[in-house]
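Researcher: We're teaching a course module on how sequence relates to structure. For the next exercise, students receive a sequence and then see the predicted structure as tokens, so they can try to spot secondary structure elements on their own. Here is the exercise chain.
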Amino acid sequence: MSYNSNFDVDSVLELLGTVNEKYQDGSPEDEALRIAAVALLYVRDIQKLDEYREYFRKFYTPAIESVIVSQTFATREEADAWLASGKASEDELVRIAGQGFRVITARKGKGLIFLRTPLPEEME
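Model: And here is the predicted structure for the students to work with:
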């Protein structure tokens, strides 16, 4: 399940307050909810909310969803032509005829080549 990393801070704080009303002051639940609320306020006050949102997104994004294929090619010939064009960057992940490959530097630094790297859907 993915979560909304663009959550509304005020709505979250209001909900934490509503949930906290169900617990006695000083209880472990009260303390945990107050700590969470103040931590969220702190992140917003020091203007690090965007960084926190990115951290939150990465934390809850399953690994399979975070794999990004930069290019898709129907044939190896098309992929080789792209690689030779100089448009490829090291570490790019591409799909060639349904299979995953990573762009890497050839041995002895002689240009870029494809290294077979199975995509998550190939592993299922």
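Model: If you want an answer key for the exercise: The two ends are 18 Å apart (CA to CA). DSSP finds six helices and four strands in the chain.
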